[in-house]
Amino acid sequence: MAECHTGQKRILVTGGSGLVGRAIQHVINEEGGGKEGEQWSFLSSKDANLMNKEETQAVFQKHKPTHVIHLAAMVGGLFKNMRVNLDFWRNNIYINDNVLQAAHDVAAVKVVSCLSTCIFPDKTTYPINETMIHNGPPHQSNFGYSYAKRMIDVYNRAYVEQNGRSYTSVIPTNVFGPHDNFNIEDGHVLPGLIHKAYIAQKEEKPLVVWGSGSPRRQFIYSLDLARLILWVVREYNEVEPIILSVGEEEEVSIKEAAEAVVRALDFKGEVVYDTDKSDGQFKKTASNEKLMRYLPDFPFTPFDKALKDTCDWFVANYDDARK
Ligand SMILES: NC(=O)c1ccc[n+]([C@@H]2O[C@H](COP(=O)([O-])OP(=O)(O)OC[C@H]3O[C@@H](n4cnc5c(N)ncnc54)[C@H](OP(=O)(O)O)[C@@H]3O)[C@@H](O)[C@H]2O)c1
């Protein structure tokens, strides 16, 4: 667990060792993104297993946070989700119930939790926006994760209504960046492609992209997301979730993402598409109109630059990277 700054706001980040948590650590510790009067603490599963109620209560009693950024979750890509939907449902329900109640028990004034655009209804109109979360069943591939995440919004409204607390949530699109999970079987599409291209390059074999390459995704760089989450914890006062995403026009196909990885790693081999593998949801185009109303000039890092920085980080940290 890492700590810095002293003062009256004690901000506790669950999942502080993950992709998004490490990005927040970077912004606070390396970019001077912390403010006077803020004390930051970042938890990993080594500090407490948040599926366990007693351990969660103990770690919250120890830190007595005034503010909580709740990132900890069982997270995985399409193929892991399809294998263990039950685990995604149960583990995330336990974690969320324990964390939100422990925050209440120590009288934390604000909790910001993390949803995802992949929890929205499968059959929907586009672009999706914050009002549509509960409008229909999620995609069959990840229903366990999706329903568990949707329940955070239910918790938030109930904590606000019954206890007058400031609980809210953010909805990022696909996140990528340094410290991602680059596991090919269980990780998300972009880190998986980066890892596969890295190996294919070394072994002088083709890069095999799973699926047709036609599904479309919006990607957000973890450091951009971290900066936005800091703004949410300090300034955003609605219980309703807010989508944290690049614009709809920034959506790319998996094929375009694979080509960007090829450029970033200077991969020279052939790229082939394994259409026997599932494509997952075709698209989940999200509107960032609400975010743009609050922060019209937010400077998103260009996709190619963020991808290049991520690939460079992966190559430089290959031995220690999660994979
Ligand atoms: N990655 C994406 O594309 C994406 C997109 C939308 C939303 N989100 C959401 O963003 C949040 C952060 O995701 P991420 O990508 O940063 O995930 P990640 O890299 O997989 O990190 C997960 C974090 O949760 C912690 N954690 C998991 N199980 C735990 C447990 N039982 N007890 C305590 N800590 C536990 C992990 O601790 P250890 O390091 O000790 O294992 C780690 O710090 C999640 O809520 C996720 O649903 C992610």
Automatic annotation (TrEMBL):
Domain named NAD-dependent epimerase/dehydratase: residues: 11-247
Entry's EC annotation: 1.1.1.271
InterPro entries xrefs: Epimerase_deHydtase, GDP_fucose/colitose_synth, NAD(P)-bd_dom_sf
Superkingdom: Eukaryota
Keyword Metal-binding: no
Listed GO MF terms: GDP-L-fucose synthase activity; isomerase activity
Its biological purpose: Catalyzes the two-step NADP-dependent conversion of GDP-4-dehydro-6-deoxy-D-mannose to GDP-fucose, involving an epimerase and a reductase reaction.
Family classification: Belongs to the NAD(P)-dependent epimerase/dehydratase family. Fucose synthase subfamily.
Name of protein: GDP-L-fucose synthase
Organism: Muraenolepis orangiensis
